[in-house]
Specification:
This protein is of the alpha+beta class. It is about 25% helix and about 25% strand.
Amino acid sequence: MSDGSLSDGSLSDDAEAAVRQRLAQLGIEHEIVPCDPDRADTAAFCETYGYALDDSANTIVVAGRSNPPIYAACVVLATTRLDVNRVVRRRLGVSKASFASADATHALTGMAIGGVTVFGLPDDLPIWVDARVMTRERIVLGGGSRRCKIVASPSILRALAGVEIVEGLATPAEQP
């Protein structure tokens, strides 16, 4: 489901432009894949455009409950579950952590859920990548808006300053 106010608006345009600029600065090989904003959520995107869920790497903003709240961005495969209650909570140094709300994610990143990516994030936001992501031949990441995705080698993540590869950041998702 698309957030109509963000999927086509200038805020989305600004975030997508910032992401493309950051990718150009990094000079790392990648492909920008356009998509229907209504099909930007991971499962719908993969089904519509023929990508494997195993190659989809979701960027999830998490919040540590403190005053003020502290945030981090986590990159995990779509076939895994981010371990918010143990690993994220400990890494943030808080007693409680949760997924940041869509509003908090947008306020922090300028990006809508379904388009969030590690490229173009605030410089002071920690970026933690589950080690499983780095084992893939290619990954599909958000593109800064719900209108596109980034396809690249996972090595693209190492080009960002401050990225930490974390063993056990996510656990295998239960299969239906």
